[in-house]
Structure formats: C-alpha cells, structure tokens
Amino acid sequence: MIEYITERLLEAEGLKPEDIKTIAVPKIADRMTLLDSGELKAATLPDPLSSLASQSGAILMVDDTKHPEYGYSVYSFRKI
Known about the structure:
alpha+beta, single chain
C-alpha cells in the first residue's frame, strides 16, 4: 500500500513512472534509520516519524494533503 501511494503521489507531482525507483523496507523504524543515515534518498513515513524526520533535517517532497484522492496518511521526505 505504501509503495502504491508513494508512486501515485510522485506521479501527481510530475515524475514519470520510469523515474521512480523503490525498494521495500517493511519496518518503518528501519526506513527512518536508513533515511537518517543517507542510505535512502527518500522515504514515505507516517507521523510521528515524519515529524521527527523534519526535525532532523529531512525536507518535505510531497504534501499528500494536495492530493486527497490518495489519502492523508503518508508523507515523503528527502534528506539533503
């Protein structure tokens, strides 16, 4: 489900499907750790981890509230 929503949100923001590369990181805590360490360029995280990622320097890439057709439950971040 997370991969589906992530892909739809990124496509809604103008990315082409062939430009989107995903890997499965089922455990959300692992996803957060990989993002924080720089091993992931971006991650889709639920709150409160999305807020924690923002406080740690992650930058919001997609605001799902702009695309209510895909839900209001996930956020994608990229750490620079």
